[in-house]
Structures are given as structure tokens and as C-alpha cells.
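Record type: monomer structure entry
Structure origin: computed from sequence
Chain ID: A
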Amino acid sequence: MSEGNYKVILCERGVRTFADHTRNTLDLSIVPAVQRLSHLPIVVDPSHGTGKRNKVTPLSRAAIAVGADGLIVEVHHEPDRAMSDGIQSLYPEQFVELMKQVRQIAPVVGRMVPAIGSYPRSSDAMPAHSDVRSAVSPLA
């Protein structure tokens, strides 16, 4: 940002630990901590943060509940045949269900999820922190 790029988004993708139940340990406590210390938006990537498909939806719900500004979720129509990261990719129908759940949780914490495609895709249209929307799962 000191060089003039103000389009910066932070992302929690997990940290390496000795735990073996996931690839990384997704530290959701960092979301409110970062929001207290910075004006920058923070998104959560539960796909890479866990490395396991069955953990993506529950941790996505939790990320929204703690106030994440967006999600990065991997989706693939044939995850078992994906060139990479198939084991952590949701099937399209799982993503649809995830979005239904996220849309129910977001209002509880004072947020909303606009319809996909309702926000301009122009790189010049980066909103302020309080109105950040992720390309995958937009939150306001």
C-alpha cells in the first residue's frame, strides 16, 4: 500500500501445526483480531485451510459467524478427477447448499450476501472495507 496499491485483501488460509486431522489448522480467531487492528478486509479460505471437503462447509459457516468479509471456496464438477486440490473441492450442489446456509447466517451477524453477479466485476470497482464482496461468496 505504501507504493500506491490500495486494493489489498487479507486471507486466512490456515497455519501448519502438528495436528493430522486437517492439512492446516484454520485459525478463525484471527478474523476479529485483524478487524480490530486494520481497515483491510479479511476473507477465509476453508478449502486450503483444511484440505478436506467435509470440513469446508462447517468452517465456512463459522467464518461468516465470526465476521469474515468473504470466502474463497474451491468447487469442481468432478473433484476426484481434478488436476489439483480435488480432495478439498466441493461439488457444485454442495456449494449451492453452502451458499443457502451462508445466506441464513449472514443476517444474524449484520451482514448480507448479494446475489452472484449483482456486483460489477471491474478491477476499478473495489469497494471500501465495510462493503467488500468476494468474487466467490460476496458479503456486505
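Annotation 1: The longest strand covers residues 10-12.
Annotation 2: The mean pLDDT is 83.
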